[in-house]
Amino acid sequence: MCGIVGYIGNKNATPILINGLQCLEYRGYDSAGIAIVQNGKINIVKDKGRVSNLKNICSNANLNSNIGIAHTRWATHGRPAKINSHPHIDNSGNFAAVHNGIIENYNELKEFLTLKGYSFLSETDTEVIPNLIHYYYTNIISDNDKFLKAVNSAVDKLRGSYALEIISSLYPDQIIVVRKDSPLVIGKGNGENFIASDIPAMLYYTKDFYLLEDNEYAVIYKDNITFFDNFLSEHSKTIKNIEWDANATEKNGYEDYMLKEIYEQPNSIRETIGSRLELGEKCSFDDINFTLEYLKSINKIYIVACGTAMHAGLVGKNAIEKLCKIPTEVEIASEFRYCEPIVDKNTLCIYISQSGETADTIAALKLAKEKGAKTLAISNVIGSSITREADYTIYTHAGPEIAVASTKAYTSQVVLMVILAIHFSEILGTSDKEYINKLKSDILDLPAKIEVILSETNIIQEFANKVYTEHDMYFLGRGTDYDVAMEGSLKLKEISYIHSEAYAAGELKHGPIALIENGVTVISIITNSNLVEKTLSNVQEVITRGAKTLVITNQKLTNTDFNFVITIPETNSIISPILSVIPLQFLAYYIAKNKGLDVDKPRNLAKSVTVE
Ligand code: F6R
To answer: Was domain 252-453 assigned CATH 3.40.50.300?
Structure first.
């Protein structure tokens, strides 16, 4: 959701900015633009549409400068249009800004500036920012740090969330950045520096990063960066070395990132397991040190997240309740924020976020902290905002996930939640040792079992060929199979635009079965041996009413009435979602491909949802 890039150095900024924007395309956007300082003036090129379109326009625009800022916009205030695209410039033409986030009081600020004689071209909240900077700039008497002081005075008036990059034709040797509740990182080069919304956009150029904190300013020159707090006192900052390989952000021969990431799952899961789980040893986490006393004091665990991460939380809840006997609730972050949750110092709140930048999840975490709960973040992105807010963080280590639809992050989140549950149960002594040892060995076997599923995709492709023109589909399951049904349904909706619903199979007769008629597609997941017969009866009920059925199972089913069956390897039902989700990821993928859709960048969606 909105991407920001910046460059200052000795090279031509434009190709670096365009390359950075291309790396951020996965975040989701509808327009793109860049601003440079050339011959003492700010030159802006922007348009609605793809970065490739911007690249074409730039190639004819004779742009040449060693400093620039760039942006991909995901429309919030104002329709996707050239006029609303960033960068925005002030009335004097001296200050240009790009912004990720939402300025909640922009109407108020617009009125104030209008009274002072400023006019506005766009429908955006952002356009007030460069004008406010200009207003304060002209009102500051001292010459020292006038640019920074003007930015600071303007930012002081903003309410909402922002990651901001500002350049000025009056200061062609510096870029000023500041953030609050929106991501921004600075990459340190040799005689050049880079800015971006996230690390993968800069991995080609550097592995050394400064992770900007909320309300922290940086003034970036080509060979120097100075950091300031909200009151403009200067401070030093530690650099972070990030070991991600730039190749990890390439497609490496795959047609799409999503397909690549589906195939990466055996490896990403191995990375998640790492040294945390070894046969014959107790599970261990370097990053947390929960004692028996603390775990015994927990009266409730909340798992809070959005979308796919929330679905991983559902599987985690089952593992924690089964293995640790601690009551656990899963809540959607945007609901948790406003439902007045009953949380106190005896509640452990776990936040799952691949990106670590999801606005609702971060706000939900801050709320629980205020109420005195301990907070634990599970994230894939080192140094992301959520990891800096939480009391404790554990990383999934799944590698960069670029496709908007989450696949490998989900399976890694589930694996991590289950290992965490085992770890807690080992401290608490709440589980049978033999059962845990078998579960551990099942977890270690997951990568090999996934490889088997990845090597046999023909049935799922055949099924996708048959159903891709349909308008509605239904997913059924019980227990963790229902958790997976929800994830399969979400995956299908978001990349194939087919309406789908997931139901707990036992709930069918309480309403939804009215929707089942001749030819409707129903996908059922049946992996829990205790629930097979129950779910099978429900599947039989939809078959009787004419449904076309796909069954994903690890059981030996004798029923031959299903139209398609995909058999997956058997495993403990606590972790079976990690295997049963993979055919569902493929199903969404192949259906979207059959429909000729862009699977990596589905319409209206953003990888990182940094606004409420
Ligand atoms: C769906 C998907 C989203 C994310 C959700 C949370 O495929 O990716 O539902 O899971 O937006 O994102 P994170 O995990 O970054 O907080």
So the answer is: no
Domains 3-99+163-248 and 458-594 share a fold: no
pLDDT digits (tens, 9 = 90+) for 349-383: 999 999 999 999 999 999 999 999 999 999 999 88
Q: Which residues contact 371 (CB under 8 A, 6 or more apart)?
A: 341, 343, 344, 347
What residues have CB less than 8 Å from 521, skipping those under 6 apart?
Answer: 467, 470, 472, 473, 474, 547, 548, 549, 550
Alpha carbon distance 144, 503 (integer Å) = 64
Among 130, 38, 43, 31, smallest CA distance to 71 is for 31
- How far apart, in whole angstroms, are the C-alpha atoms of residue 127 and residue 521? 48
Assess if CATH 3.40.50.720 describes domain 458-594. Answer: no
Q: How many A from CA of 354 to the centre of ligand 1?
A: 7
- pLDDT one-digit tens code per residue, 468-496: 999 999 999 999 999 999 999 999 999 99
As a whole number of angstroms, the distance between CA 117 and CA 132 comes to 12
Distance CA 501, CA 452 (A): 28
Q: Would you tell me the crossing angle of helices 146-156 and 128-139 to the nearest 10 degrees?
A: 130
Query: At 514, which helix (H) or strand (E)?
Result: none
CA 57 to ligand 1 center in whole angstroms: 33
Domain boundaries, the chain: 3-99+163-248, 252-453, 458-594
CATH architecture of 3-99+163-248: 4-Layer Sandwich (3.60)
- What would the mean pLDDT of 418-441 be, rounded to a whole number? 97
Q: Which amino acid is at 550?
A: L
Cβ atoms of 44 and 34 closer than 8 Å: yes
| CA-354 nearest atom, ligand 1 | 14
211 close to 183: Cβ distance less than 8 angstroms: no
User: Which residues does the annotation mark as catalytic?
Assistant: 2, 607
d(CA 267, CA 273): 10
The answer to whether the predicted template modeling score (pTM) of the entire model surpasses 0.90 is no
- What lies within 8 Å, CB to CB, of 358 at 6+ separation is 305, 306, 309, 333, 386, 608, 609, 610
∠ CA 406-32-600, rounded to 5°: 20
User: In the sheet that 88-89 helps form, which strands lie side by side, from edge to edge?
Assistant: 88-89, 95-103, 160-168, 171-180, 216-220, 225-228, 234-235
First to last CA, the chain: 11
**What is the spatial distance between Cα 457 and Cα 433, in angstroms, rounded to a whole number?**
37
Q: Is 308 in the pocket of ligand 1 (CB under 6 A)?
A: yes
Say if residue 87 is preceded by a cis peptide, omega within 30 of 0. yes
Dist. CA 406 → ligand 1 center (Å): 6
H helix runs in 25-164, sequence order:
51-59, 106-115, 128-139, 146-156
Best probe residue, ligand 1, of 26, 358, 395, 492 (max atoms within 8 Å of C-beta): 358
CB 549 within 8 A of CB 562: yes
Distances (CA, A) of 498 to 465, 481, 528: 14, 21, 28
